[in-house]
Amino acid sequence: GDTIEKIKSDFIHGFETDIFKIKLELIDGTIEESIRWITKHGITLREKGIIDGKEGKIQFLSEFTNVRVFKQDQRVFEIPEGYTIAPMGRLDDVNKLLKLMVKRI
Questions:
Q1: How far is it, in rounded angstroms, from Cα 9 to Cα 102?
Q2: Any alpha helices (H) in the chain, and if so which ranges?
Q3: Cα 38 to Cα 83: distance, rounded to the nearest angstrom
Q4: 93 phi and psi, to 5 degrees?
Q5: Which of 55, 63, 77, 93 could connect to 46 by a Cys-Cys bridge, CB 3.0–4.6 Å?
């Protein structure tokens, strides 16, 4: 079954992280075992482990090194003026949708 266990805490890239040992068993029988460094914001900064599946064992490492946490400007989420909803039900072609989305200048 799946397990998650906190091992310890550590600072990496200026962030305090909790380090977890994780074992996941996927539906197809693939097993993933990894160590994850997770910040208090819930961001996984580093993960390394092994995926053991039908194609054999794969070792992996992923890491984020240039992470900044800041308050997002709420204007990013405002709907722009002149916004209209594309008529999805009447579009039989993705290219037509793209032409609607891209303003020609």
A1: 47
A2: 94-101
A3: 38
A4: -145, 125
A5: 63
| Residue 85: predicted pLDDT | 76
Structural contact between residues 95 and 86, judged by C-beta atoms closer than 8 angstroms: no
Does residue 103 register a pLDDT over 70? no
pTM of the model: 0.64
- 58 vs 48: CA distance, rounded Å: 11
Which tens digits make up the pLDDT trace of 10-43?
Answer: 999 999 999 999 999 999 999 999 999 999 989 9
CB half-sphere exposure, 104, CA atoms < 13 A: 3
Token pair recorded at residue 101: 């989305």
Distance CA 68, CA 56 (A): 36
Give one DSSP letter per residue of 7-37, joined into a string.
EEEEEETTEEEEEEEEEEE-TTS-EEEEEEE
